[in-house]
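Hi team,

Below is the intake form for Sugar phosphate isomerase/epimerase from Parafilimonas terrae. Please confirm the fields before the structure is written into the shared record.

FORM ID: S-0412
PROTEIN: Sugar phosphate isomerase/epimerase
ORGANISM: Parafilimonas terrae
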Amino acid sequence: MLQRRKFIKQTTAAATAGLLLSKNANAFFQLKDIPPIGLQLFTFFGIIDEDVPGTLKRIADTGYKEIESAFSKKGGYYGMNAAAFKSLIESLGMAWRSHHVLGAPFKMPPGAKMPTDAKGQPLKIPPMRNLKENMQELVDEVAAVGLPFLVCANTPISTMEDIKSSIEVLHKTGEACKKAGIQFCYHNHDAEFKMVDGKVPYEMMLNELDKDTVKFELDLAWAIKGGVNPVDLFNHYPGRFPLWHVKDLDASRENIMPVGEGTLDFKPIFAAASTAGMQHFFVEHDMPKDAYASIKSSIANLKKMLA
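The structure came back. Fields below:
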């Protein structure tokens, strides 16, 4: 395992040296069994609630076969219960694989801007259930419809007290999911790779949470922005990353791009999919200017990349 200081030093050095982004690594891409390309519906946050069936049909028509859902302005599962949402997804020829929930009551990070709708108006976000307060009912709902994965989308990690409390919530949720026959995962941003009181939150989670009870959905781009080489993570923690988020970044690492239109080279990452234990991956683009154009470009580029 990586020691805390070594964790930052090695992964940052790898990213800085360009090991991850080297175009020469393409020759090592040999993934044979590629799961269907999925989509995280947060890409359509603020849009999908205007026409849920119509939005999902356009997503299906674009070629996406698997869906990971997120929170909705309408509450529940885009204004539906879990069974109705699953039925709608399947009627369009897609499979519902995973659902995102919050780890704690929602709070806007300091200095962050409230997301806006298509007209540029701040979104009115209703109260959202979370694992700290509503864990069992959230687990029970997805278990009742046979959903394979439940994912914590984010959780407080600003202080050591936050981290320890969040790890306890993740542990309890993992145990509840295990009893219900669901795999629980944690999804990262870049903040998890920044030291808090000399420790790396993400490494604490990897080391302190049971490797079978709590696995991880690695957001590849956020990890890279955090200075980490995903392939290094896979090698040091094999089999712990059954889910991935795939988005691209520009050279500044500040702007999200459709997959294939930024600067990240995903081929060496996909070549390590078996080491990671990857079962499903989902395209995601946070707050794109044109969500439909973004997902169309991403799937076309991915198909070429994975051919």
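SUMMARY LINE: The longest strand covers residues 95-102.

Thanks, M.
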